[in-house]
Amino acid sequence: MFKDFYAQHGEYVVISAEQASRFAKGVAGDYNPIHNSDARRFCVPGDLLFALVLERFGLSQTMDFRFLSMVGADTPLRFHEADDGSIHVSDEDGKCYLQATRGGATTHEVAAVDAFVRCYVAFSGKNFPHYLKPLMEEQGVMFNPKRPLVIYDSMGFTLERLEGLSPGLSLTRSSLEVLGKRADVLLEFSIQSNGEAVGWGSKKLVVSGLCDYDAEAMEAIVAEFYRLKAAYEVSAT
Question: 135 CB contacts (<8 Å, ≥6 apart)?
Answer without folding.
Answer: 174, 175, 176, 185
